[in-house]
Design goal:
Layout (H helix, E strand, L loop, with lengths): L12 H9 L5 H4 L10 H4 L5 H18 L5 E5 L12 H22 L9 E4 L5 H11 L4 E6 L16 E4 L2 H9 L2 E6 L4 H15 L8 E4 L1 H7 L2 H6 L12 E3 L2 H15 L5
Parallel strand pairs: 1-2, 1-5, 2-3, 3-4, 5-6, 6-7
């Protein structure tokens, strides 16, 4: 229920703000001190108001998603630099294939068919490349999807396939990360850069340390991942346990990823196909 529509004995903040605008124009009413605190951007953007901004940034998407009944998501992560047009060599052609597989995965998740009792929703980082592909796949099925954009020095606009009501923008990476995982039933990482690695290792650390319940963490295109990181070497060196290698699974297609996700969801909910 939208809390703004609940009956109240008191004027709403919108009503009070409207009343405040009717004040006479005097030196006193023009003073920044007279502004209502929640209407005062200069005040809200002060450095010492950061704790409040963090709280608001956590609450705004949370309230919106709760009001729309969004309870279960699958995170699709990967490079924003993945092209959408045919490349000039085998390497770029592989990245085109990444895009098409991420798009297909978005379709499969949005259908949520075959043993998964929850309606799953795609969530991405909201940008281009693999993120666009995931949102686009959801739109192919006529379903909603979520995009969690971040403010960067070089502007990153939301891709056009995100459901507008679920197109969020964040200032703080930490709060954005929380929203990726609060409702997540699985994380699927396609080849990517620092941002993809950041989200992957954040998730693995939370599961490894018991701060988050286990879920499928799927890496698409095993050959690529084994080229750029050597997790068995970390285990052999005693930096992680060998059992920690089981926290990830490799997949070679969108269908393989979806089969793992739907089976896991069904098992968690005590249902079978």
């Amino acid at each position: 229920m939208n809390s703004d529509k609940r009956p109240s004995r008191f004027p709403s903040s919108r009503q009070d703000a409207a009343y405040a605008q009717k004040a006479p124009d005097t030196p006193q009413t023009r003073s920044p001190a007279y502004r209502l605190a929640y209407k005062d951007k200069d005040f809200l953007q002060r450095q010492d108001l950061r704790p409040l901004r963090l709280q608001l940034e956590l609450m705004k998407p949370e309230v919106t998603l709760q009001e729309h009944g969004v309870n279960a998501t699958v995170v699709i992560f990967g490079s924003a630099r993945t092209p959408t047009a045919k490349g000039t060599n085998a390497h770029s052609d592989a990245r085109i294939a990444d895009y098409e597989q991420a798009r297909e995965l978005g379709r499969l998740i949005s259908r949520s068919e075959g043993g998964c009792p929850e309606q799953l929703m795609v969530v991405t980082g909201g940008g281009p490349g693999i993120m666009e592909a995931g949102n686009r796949g959801a739109q192919d099925e006529g379903k909603d999807s979520i995009g969690l954009n971040i403010v960067l020095p070089h502007e990153q606009a939301p891709n056009p396939y995100i459901t507008p009501e679920f197109s969020f923008q964040f200032q703080y990476f930490a709060i954005r990360k929380m929203h990726f995982l609060i409702r997540a039933r699985a994380l699927v990482c396609f080849p990517g850069g620092f941002g993809t690695m950041d989200e992957l290792f954040e998730t693995l650390t939370l599961i490894q340390t018991g701060k988050m319940r286990p879920m499928p963490v799927l890496l698409y295109r095993r050959e690529w991942w084994e080229t750029i990181m050597n997790l068995p070497a970390m285990a052999d060196a005693g930096m992680i346990d060998h059992k920690d290698l089981d926290l990830i699974q490799y997949v070679e297609s969108a269908q393989e990823a979806w089969d793992i996700i739907r089976t896991w969801c069904a098992e968690q909910n005590g249902t079978t196909d």
